[in-house]
Amino acid sequence: MRISEIRGIRGTFLSACAVAVVLAGTAACTSDGDGPPARATATPTAAACKNGTYAWFNVDERDVLTGIAEKQKITAKGGGELTNKLRPLHAPRVAVTFEKGSRVGDAKDVLRSLGIHIGEIERVDAADGSTHEFANVRRPAPDINDGSTRMLGPGTYVQYAAVRQVTADFQYTCGTGGPVTGRATSWTIDGGGIVECFTPIKPAKKGAPPLAAARLSCGPDAPASKA
After folding, report:
1. What Å distances lie between residue 93 and 50, 72, 133, CA to CA?
2. Which of 16, 111, 113, 218 could form a disulfide with 54 if both were Cys (CB 3.0 to 4.6 A apart)?
């Protein structure tokens, strides 16, 4: 996060692609993504069948908090720097699991197909073999404390970090063998923002990172915590 000067930010989610272009691999916002990042698993099976067809379903995309700081009160008229460090909440991961059947190839192939399906990867890039972080099974989780932020006015502030997790089930059909099913997960946007506890968030979208951050650090009775 670069040093920024912000006045009156009201729960803005600052999107920023962390790598080439840009929660884990679960349909829930707060579970089973906290294991080691960048993990891919597969059941050893028969030889891979190439150039098959993917069908994607149960695609889930949602913003998830990856870190949050304790609220900090700044009283100086000219503002001040936010010094409370963000504590980790969720570590996004990249993973592919296969059911029994002919192996699809590798996790990168599956993730590349998912990236094309959701519009994260251009077909032309996939065709020419270009690498993309969405399909990188060794992709590290983002650093949630990589910079500093200075506020230009007084207030009670909460800083947070978030990613957009993508999880989906797939069926792969290739050759004369039966279809292979599995699940893939990765993440796209790496960003964050700041909320002021006594400033209502508009619009206050249920489940959005600004509202979740306010409820965790400002408290349930704070104006910013009320949808």
Report:
1. 26, 30, 12
2. 113
Interior/surface letters 180-192, b for 16+ CB within 10 angstroms, e for the rest? bbbbbbbbbbbbb
C-alpha angle 180-183-187 in degrees, rounded to nearest 5: 145
CA distances from 169 to 10, 62, 77, 139, 173 (A): 35, 15, 52, 20, 14
